[in-house]
Design goal:
Layout: H1 2-20, H2 27-30, E1 35-41, E2 47-55, E3 58-62, E4 79-83, E5 86-88, H3 95-105, H4 111-125, H5 158-172, E6 176-177, H6 181-189, E7 240-246, H7 251-255, E8 261-262, E9 273-276, E10 292-294, E11 319-320, E12 324-325
Parallel strand pairs: 4-8, 7-11
Antiparallel strand pairs: 1-2, 2-5, 3-4, 5-12, 6-12, 7-9, 9-10
């Protein structure tokens, strides 16, 4: 009789987890490779490789509690989010990788001419094909700002980062994109619900991130600090990272109306975009998992052009990005 009760209990637990755990955490997800290496061939024939790691699907509380030190109003209310699995680059996109895109797609045309021609081509083609998407115009000044190839790509606009992702998708046949804000925070937390992925103590931040106490007022080569529990580097500091979403101060209020919010992509329209993770000049509070920021007017102050470039944020070495990759539905 006792054995029967135990068996009934075990069966109940199995049923419970089968119902409550998201589809991505079932046996189907276990068949996906935990990581893979992407290889891109540059215009000059050089092979450039980078890794992508599997971020397992699941649910989490997005945003910060009202009593978290340094919290901003736009970080709340906390709301439940459920995400499918996806792949994320464990490191920020490097200057070396970005320069392969730049050299292959750079256009000598002025911004407004290039944009208008790209619009016309897109309308004629009827699809978003990288072959008809004009690449960036020549950068004003030195795009590397004196940094080496292993440092993060810097000084690029959200539009530029998005175009890079479309180029990378065309090169590889995979669906590369900027992570959504929800995907970024979920990956940053790496299963934790604390202020930082490693806990609540800011004294440990020096082991994980380049910020005002560790960075000496400049970016550093990617992947030199400790990774979080999911093997992701520089989620705290070094450079801020563009994400997919438009910015809205009330975005979380809207998201909280859904429980849970499934694979959210933020507001449908807007003028500004979100950046996450903080940079080398930030305080510890700005490197919290829930901390949000968005493009400021002064980010374009180094651009002498009128109108301002849609591609570049000259002399702004604190903003970069990392790439995510969607998993085709049939592979789950």
């Amino acid at each position: 009789m006792r054995l029967s009760r135990i068996l009934v209990g075990v069966i109940a637990l199995v049923v419970y987890f089968a119902v409550t755990m998201p589809e991505d955490t079932t046996a189907a997800q276990k068949k996906l490779p935990k990581k893979y290496t992407e290889i891109v061939t540059a215009k000059d024939g050089e092979k450039i490789s980078f890794e992508m790691v599997l971020i397992p699907g699941g649910s989490f509380l997005m945003g910060s509690p009202v009593d978290e030190a340094g919290r901003q109003d736009h970080e709340g209310p906390q709301h439940k989010v459920r995400l499918d699995s996806f792949y994320l680059c464990p490191k920020e996109a490097t200057i070396k990788l970005f320069m392969a895109f730049y050299r292959e797609t750079v256009s000598a045309k002025r911004d407004f001419i290039a944009v208008e021609e790209a619009k016309k081509d897109k309308e004629q083609k009827g699809k978003d094909d990288v072959d008809v998407i004009t690449g960036p115009t020549p950068v004003y000044g030195d795009m590397t700002m004196g940094y080496e190839d292993t440092h993060p790509a810097i000084g690029i606009t959200w539009h530029n980062a998005m175009t890079f992702c479309r180029w990378l998708s065309k090169k590889t046949g995979k669906n590369y994109h900027l992570p959504t804000e929800a995907e970024w925070e979920y990956a940053c937390r790496a299963g934790s619900s604390t202020v930082f992925s490693f806990g609540d103590d800011p004294k440990k931040l020096a082991d994980f991130g380049w910020f005002e106490d560790t960075a000496d007022s400049e970016t550093n080569p990617v992947g030199k600090k400790k990774p979080n529990a999911w093997g992701l580097y520089d989620m705290s500091g070094n450079v801020r990272e563009w994400v997919h979403d438009f910015y809205s101060p009330t975005a979380y209020q809207e998201a909280a109306k859904k429980s849970p919010s499934v694979n959210p992509k933020g507001p449908k329209t807007g003028e500004l975009h979100v950046a996450r993770g903080g940079d080398y000049s930030c305080s510890a509070e700005e490197l919290r998992c829930a901390a949000r920021t968005f493009e400021q007017e002064w980010w374009r102050s180094g651009d002498p052009q009128i109108p301002k470039s849609i591609w570049w944020l000259p002399e702004m070495d604190f903003i970069g990005f990392r790439v995510a990759c969607s998993i085709e539905k049939g592979t789950k």
